[in-house]
């Protein structure tokens, strides 16, 4: 729409804020007062040999210095893009559907202007009754806050014809790690696993440094391109962990079941970055085994699997276990040593130490992403392989037929949801 008003349309009155923006960086020019025409004199002018007297122009009024309207520590307004309305989804050509998750449907599309191939995530808003969902706002905010080479990049948000058609435009990545593990002919080598783990830990550490909890790390949410680079995606359950928490505490309906930390299973309403590191440990084990570590059907079965691998928790391994909401309702098995060496017989001592540091009962003792990046496991041979040396694979997201890998969905709040303590 043109910025100039039509002949029959009154011009829009501009605010002082707009006028200040236009004048910023330009000298202020004060308009001269309009001079009224003087009536012609009735006296006849006298002839003068010197010719007509030249008209003297008034001297220009010097402009006063422009007052500073911002702090010295705030960048110039020209550095920030102007706020514009969202583009239409019809700027993109839909190619094929990639997958459908709990919070959206992902399509592959082409930008009609630039020709770039992108991923369009359509948010599920049809059943929303309380306005725009907080999960979608958190996802967009988290993606904009966590700009990193191993985090999927958000490009823009586009809209359709109705209020329920909102799409998040992101970079298109050829594979997801879950599908790749089920279709690749041979498992990843140790050097390749180290590279993938370093990239994952770097992305998780960057999110935590920016006060973002992902809360749904799993192999299907790790995208991988044909250049050996993985990118963390699907921030639908992410949130800031530095914000004040309501009276009910943090929700327990986070993290896909197979990757859920034991403190959440035990009913904890206060948790932090350690829940993401437990998921990283499960992903590490899945890369080594080429299958998920805890393939449980429900929360009770998952707890029994964890007790069998780590041994039952004790006052030394988990000092705060007795204070958890579900501690009194679950009978612990008899004490037994952990089974890590039997489960991972070919893993080195440093690799086993890293895995056990990630899969630790006590969240306070669990290793952080920053500490894990400096672990000796990544400095011993075989050293991490350069991403450019990774093999390339046919992309399943390009529309090819494939078998969907068996994996549970991310948790969603349901009307009949019950905690473990509520079952008979």
Automatic annotation (TrEMBL):
UniProt xrefs under SMART domains: S_TKc
UniProt-listed InterPro entries: CDK, CDK11/PITSLRE_STKc, Kinase-like_dom_sf, Prot_kinase_dom, Ser/Thr_kinase_AS
GO BP annotations listed: regulation of mitotic cell cycle
Region named Disordered: 1-72, 389-412
UniProt xrefs under Pfam families: Pkinase
UniProt biased composition (Polar residues): 41-50
Catalytic activity: L-threonyl-[protein] + ATP = O-phospho-L-threonyl-[protein] + ADP + H(+); L-seryl-[protein] + ATP = O-phospho-L-seryl-[protein] + ADP + H(+)
Compositional bias segments (type: Basic residues): 31-40
Family designation: Belongs to the protein kinase superfamily. CMGC Ser/Thr protein kinase family. CDC2/CDKX subfamily.
Protein name according to UniProt: cyclin-dependent kinase
Species name: Coprinellus micaceus
